[in-house]
Amino acid sequence: MLVAAGYRHAMNYILPKHNINYDPDASSFPLKATALNSSNVSFVSHAQDKPFGSYLQQTLDFSQFKALFDAVNATTGSLQSRGEAHVTIITPPEFDRVLKPAGVTIQEIEEIAQQANIQHSRLSPVCLGRFNGSLPNPAVDADKGRFLLYSLVVEDKFDDLLAIRQDIFNLYHKKGGEGALFQPESFWPHVTIGFDRRDLFIEDGIYKGSNYCYAPSERERQQREKRLFLSVAGIGFTGSLLAAVALGHRRAHRAAKAAGESITHNQVNWAFRAFGLGTMYAFAIVGCGAAIGSYYMQQRGVTSMSEFAAYMRGRVQGAMGTSMKKRHNVEGAEDAKLLDTANSWLDQVDEESNQKKISFSKIKALANSEKSSMSIGERMRAVFGFNKKE
Description:
390 residues, alpha+beta, four-stranded antiparallel sheet, 8 strands, elongated
């Protein structure tokens, strides 16, 4: 039975992207930035009382994969699609042959999955996989001949789905199931894109890890984030430069005062010193920060700012043992309702004055009432240690 134990952790099959062997003639295929985000997609139950009718999946929005299917099908013209997209977490053979005989019900599996917020599981694309060949051991004559199959290989980057499989294994083991028959880590997440005859599975001898990679998949988000990163880096450098110039100017002012001369009497000299000092600080701060940050993210396989944010959320959740939402008993629907309410406040207008009820000046006054009379310039000077203008 191919669902037996003995496989290594699934993540071991996801090689670093520079070690993946792509087809030299394959081009990059487009993938929408939000394709793997299923937080707004409803969970779909598959609990049919028939052979191979029950399984567990993370449901995705098929419309997000339509462009990828069309691009792939344009190269063959012979593919068919199911018209839906998902990542299978518990396969039909795993349930029918292993879990169900041990007394584990599909309802218990789905309850575990929904408690773990399966639809919020974080996935990252690895590549477009392809099988174009004959099965090694066709079971029936209908399976003889060539098959063509395309799938998007994905990575369970923060082990969200693996954690669900481990919880299912714990229940299976608690009910007396034989541990050697179910290995949570024997798991290769992917999204089937299209096929010519039928989909293929592990039972057919097809493994869909990074070994299955055919072509890279380029996310629109990656392109946007590259541009965003350059913009943020430019803004950050400019801000660091201005802050450093202000600090340098302050030091120059102190040095001038200690030397017994007024900075206004020797503006050019001290200005050059301040600018030089500020520039040096800016390059040091931004350069070192960018180098350390880049090294830190590369060591963890993080390739974008959103992945870095997701990585940090995963670290925090791992340290706390739960998410902030769960810790404070905030439901997803309640959280969305609060955000919608806050957004609606921003557009509320006072009927008498015809002015927005929420303004920057009001927020400033509420946030720091004792300093509400200070102007923005006064606050900036206070931050850098300058006295109030005389």
